[in-house]
């Protein structure tokens, strides 16, 4: 085991600070305590903003499916519905291919960030899905289009898990909720961006190219930023410490502390109580106390929350067209609704570290039920847009909340793998949900779709309300016990 020494101030049992001229760092608990005591400064926010910029491109690539769907139908590559429940020529197949890739990426590849580090996988997963999307943009047949959407989904799935894990380990505990709120605020700016670009480009031909292809290719701009991410993002000190690489963790943490202290203008606060850490957790431990109930809760949650989130976000243009609204008008309405996407987590910033995350998830699910059923009956433009905004706000407040929440429930040594496993259920759900929503839309109309969503949100409320633990203001290490 590597042993490093540094001068620091530790908090004694009675809460007073004591000098420790040669504090020996031999435990990840001390590394974590030093991270958690960091005040909110520019150096800390820079790390959060860099990860948030990566999340922006992630959301762009994740959510453009619904916005380019009318263009794919217009070009004759896909159809709006399918003859059979699992037909492979419709929009449902395109959406299902993405979530199939996400499912495999999160379930089978979540271990990569635990094994090779958060920093490396963050950058290489981004390169993967940018390359796959670029190839996909030049396909002219449904099978090829669906295959490359699956391949891009693999990279996106790995990236989503890595960003959340990375964020939870770099952000101090008093800032963790707000860090995820800011990350998702910036990330969900991609929603109005992709909606507006789709409004401008999808109905048109640009330089002889179908507009939907331009929307897909523009997402590849993230490749230009990869070198910047790689250079400016440090590896997670928590992850390094969990691997016994204390010397490297110390160098990164010391550099961060020096920058924070300089910006803070005074000595850093005393290190708080060092929680004992779970050093050697195995993946099988997710089925043992205290993680078993958390795992079951998150599986149920992800199976059903996906119905509400993607059932609206990926299908809203098609739902509006089904209600008799033209493709151009539906994309305009969707663009306006999309403007609310970053406002959800931005408003959530005000409550992120004030209310228990499980309570926020339950409340937003309840509002989703009511707003969705009203949306299904709306016909006036004002009502459609207003209710669409409410649904978007609730979905995105819930999104940043549960992304923070699920990362808090497992120890560092298995965090990416455990979250990847439970999160993969949302991808599996989304695969099936795409076809079920297409079926409900064809057989029961828009109202049938939202009754289906309402039933799913009811299960979310029950699972999180009964099984979800409290995490607000607690260190990652204390939650792991």
Automatic annotation (TrEMBL):
Q: Which PROSITE patterns match?
A: MFS, SUGAR_TRANSPORT_2
Q: List residues of the Major facilitator superfamily (MFS) profile domain.
A: 47-472
What this protein is called in its record is MFS transporter
Where in or outside the cell it occurs: the entry states:
Membrane
Cellular component, GO, one term: membrane
Q: Supply the source organism for this entry.
A: Paraburkholderia dipogonis
Q: How does it sit in the membrane?
A: Multi-pass membrane protein
Q: What is its main location?
A: membrane
Q: Which domain of life is it from?
A: Bacteria
Q: Note whether Cytoplasm occurs among the keywords.
A: no
């Amino acid at each position: 085991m590597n042993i490093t020494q540094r001068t620091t101030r530790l908090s004694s049992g009675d809460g007073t600070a004591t000098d420790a001229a040669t504090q020996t760092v031999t435990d990840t608990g001390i590394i974590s305590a030093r991270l958690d005591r960091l005040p909110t400064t520019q150096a800390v926010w820079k790390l959060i903003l860099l990860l948030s910029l990566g999340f922006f491109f992630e959301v762009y690539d994740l959510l453009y499916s619904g916005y380019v769907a009318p263009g794919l139908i217009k070009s004759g590559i896909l159809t709006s519905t399918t003859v059979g429940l699992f037909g492979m020529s419709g929009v449902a197949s395109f959406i299902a291919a993405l979530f199939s890739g996400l499912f495999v990426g999160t379930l089978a590849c979540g271990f990569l960030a635990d094994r090779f580090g958060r920093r490396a996988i963050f950058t290489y997963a981004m390169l993967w899905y940018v390359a796959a999307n670029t190839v996909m943009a030049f396909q002219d047949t449904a099978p090829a289009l669906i295959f490359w959407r699956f391949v891009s989904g693999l990279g996106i799935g790995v990236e989503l898990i890595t960003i959340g894990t990375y964020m939870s380990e770099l952000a101090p505990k008093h800032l963790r909720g707000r860090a995820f709120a800011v990350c998702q605020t910036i990330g969900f700016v991609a929603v109005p961006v992709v909606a507006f670009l789709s409004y401008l480009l999808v109905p048109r031909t640009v330089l002889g190219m179908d507009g939907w292809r331009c929307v897909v290719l523009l997402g590849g701009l993230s490749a230009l930023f990869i070198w910047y991410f790689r250079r400016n993002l440090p590896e997670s000190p928590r992850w390094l410490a969990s691997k016994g690489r204390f010397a490297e963790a110390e160098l990164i943490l010391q550099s961060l502390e020096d920058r924070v202290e300089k910006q803070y203008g005074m000595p850093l606060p005393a290190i708080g109580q060092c929680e004992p850490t779970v050093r050697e957790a195995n993946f099988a431990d997710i089925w043992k106390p205290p993680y078993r109930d958390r795992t079951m809760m998150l599986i149920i949650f992800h199976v059903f929350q996906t119905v509400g989130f993607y059932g609206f976000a990926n299908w809203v243009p098609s739902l509006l067209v089904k209600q008799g609204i033209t493709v151009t008008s539906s994309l305009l309405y969707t663009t306006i609704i999309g403007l609310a996407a970053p406002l959800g987590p931005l408003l959530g910033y005000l409550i992120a570290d004030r209310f228990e995350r499980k309570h926020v998830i339950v409340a937003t699910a309840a509002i989703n039920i009511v707003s969705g059923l009203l949306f299904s009956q709306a016909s006036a433009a004002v009502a459609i847009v207003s209710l669409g905004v409410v649904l978007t706000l609730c979905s995105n407040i819930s999104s940043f909340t549960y992304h923070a929440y699920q990362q808090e429930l497992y120890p560092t040594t298995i965090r990416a793998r455990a979250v990847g496993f439970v999160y993969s259920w949302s991808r599996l759900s989304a695969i099936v949900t795409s076809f079920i929503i297409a079926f409900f839309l064809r057989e029961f109309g828009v109202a049938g779709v939202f009754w289906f969503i309402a039933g799913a949100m009811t299960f979310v409320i029950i699972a999180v309300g009964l099984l979800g633990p409290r995490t607000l203001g607690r260190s990652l290490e204390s939650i792991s016990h």
